[in-house]
Amino acid sequence: xxxxxxxxxxxxxxxxxxxxxxxxxxxxxxxxxxxxxxxxxxxxxxxxxxxxxxxxxxxxxxxxxxxxxxxxxxxxxxxxxxxxxxxxxxxxxxxxxxxxxxxxxxxxxxx
Length: 111
Hints:
CATH superfamily: Protein of unknown function DUF3227
CATH topology: Non-ribosomal Peptide Synthetase Peptidyl Carrier Protein, Chain A
Number of helices: 5
Structural class: mainly alpha
Distance between the termini: 9 Å
Order of helices and strands: HHHHH
CATH architecture: Orthogonal Bundle
Radius of gyration: 14 Å
Largest sheet: none
């Protein structure tokens, strides 16, 4: 499996984990809303991160940052990435890019 596919799989799992913190019915409602309002289906979130983030902001306002942080923390755990001290000041996509760059440099990146 190419590294890109492995990363998307891990990212998707981290998104699921982060949204699970809200409960199953809330997670389903978020997926429904994202699909209806933004045309993002669950399987396409990883390739539509900006729209995903916009959708969360649309639903939760400033509370979206909390959900994004839950997702990022799950991603950090799954990949072994040690974020910089200022990671909370970096936007959602920026943090994901940093993790992806870290993994691209890792010779032994495995799922």
